[in-house]
Design a protein that fits this description.
Length: 221
């Protein structure tokens, strides 16, 4: 099973220290699912906006990339049952006392990742200048370097970043927005969707899913 992902999205998919191999919640989950389904899993890295085209041209079989299930994507692909509930959050520089929530971003410069729900949200902010980057890390660097007033992106990824490089210069503000379920995408009509759902249900029943969840995110809130 060829699994497409975008590899700069810790803690869901990111390189193991000192290696090109990826690790993270999505990677370990899809490996466990593949094992249940009787497939050898091969991870293929690419840009986030290349994933759905690669799926539909047959270069990969599934997408495991923290991809939110939304109506627009459902027109192009089929999703598994949700496997994680995410959401968006705003990140600003530590010394920014002006921005308290997304409402304060009107007319401001917002950095985000290309082709993501964070970009969609950024584009709904009136008068904002939206700067879209290939990876979430590049969007965060733009904030650090003063090229943006805020970043809008996936909350679990930004919160993880806040425990790493982000803690030196950034903070999150406001509440999590838009509860977004992540799904594994397959080509429209592919029987892999049913097989993935069956395997996911088994991992939930056996406690393997919970074990992975706790390993990467701590106890369930
Ligand atoms: N969850 C977001 C989306 O689906 C971002 C995913 C990502 O950047 N890997 O658009």
């Amino acid at each position: 099973m060829r699994v497409g992902t975008e590899p700069v999205f810790a803690p869901f998919e990111f390189p193991k220290e000192g290696s090109k191999d990826l690790t993270g919640f999505d990677i370990e989950l899809i490996e466990a699912l593949g094992k249940k389904m009787g497939y050898k899993v091969e991870i293929v890295s690419m840009g986030f906006d290349a994933l759905i085209p690669a799926l539909n041209s047959g270069n990969i079989d599934v997408v495991a990339a923290g991809m939110s299930i939304n109506e627009e994507r459902q027109k192009a692909v089929t999703f598994s049952e949700p496997y994680y509930t995410s959401g968006l959050i705003v990140m600003v520089n530590k010394d920014n006392n002006e921005v308290k929530s997304v409402k304060d971003l009107e007319g401001k410069r917002i950095a985000c990742q290309i082709g993501t729900t964070g970009e969609n949200k950024s584009r709904t902010v009136e008068g904002a200048k939206v700067k879209a980057f290939n990876t979430q890390d590049e969007a965060s660097l733009e904030l650090k370097n003063g090229g943006a007033d805020a970043v809008i992106g996936d909350a679990p990824v930004i919160e993880y970043y806040m425990t790493k490089a982000g803690k030196d210069f950034a903070k999150t503000v406001g509440e999590r927005m838009e509860a977004e379920p992540y799904g594994i995408a397959v080509k429209k009509g592919s029987k892999l969707a049913g097989d993935l759902n069956k395997a996911l249900a088994e991992l939930k029943k056996s406690g393997e899913y919970d074990k992975l969840y706790t390993k990467w995110f701590g106890e369930k809130k």
